[in-house]
Amino acid sequence: MAEHATQAVSGRGAQLKRGGLLSTDPYVNLHEVISFDAPNDSADEIEVTHLESPGGRKEYIAGMIDSGEATATLNWRPDVYAEQALLRSDAADRALRYWQFVLPSSMETITFRAFVKGMKPEVTANGALLMAVTFRVSTSTVT
Questions:
Q1: 69/85 Cα distance (integer angstroms)
Q2: How many CA atoms are closer than 13 Å to the CA of 14, on its beta-carbon side?
Q3: Are the C-beta atoms of residues 97 and 90 closer than 8 Å to each other?
Q4: 15-142, what's its fold?
Q5: Taking the CB of residue 5, how many other CB atoms lie within 10 A of it?
Q6: What is the pTM of this model?
Q7: What distance in Å separates the CA atoms of residue 112 and residue 28, rounded to the nearest whole number?
Q8: How far is CA 73 from the centre of its chain?
Q9: pLDDT of 33-78, one tens digit each?
Q10: What pLDDT digit, counting tens, does each position of 16-28 carry?
């Protein structure tokens, strides 16, 4: 097997951005995001097995696509960053809002529409105060 140098890139510089209720609304960067688990499309399975299915095997077709959830973990400072404080009102109003996750060097942008499903603080004696934010995704696109 031929050797080759890796083409991997660091996640440093990626951004999670909060948009508005309309796709044309401006986006604002969420500060101090330390990790992001992007939405993952998954198709439902519809069983279509019948009495004459070949080989007595179950048969399936693809159904509706569920965009799933996304999760971000932030160094939590809503007293310093106004856009972090807005996450609380986002969770309360449950409105579908546009979000963007921009990979480093604008390699790829994941745009999704979601509501804030949950927020969970993570507190340890010898660590930063963190907030895990879960988004329930309604639609998702990659550009």
A1: 21
A2: 20
A3: yes
A4: Factor Xa Inhibitor (4.10.410)
A5: 5
A6: 0.86
A7: 14
A8: 11
A9: 999 999 999 999 999 999 999 999 999 999 999 999 999 999 999 9
A10: 999 999 999 999 9
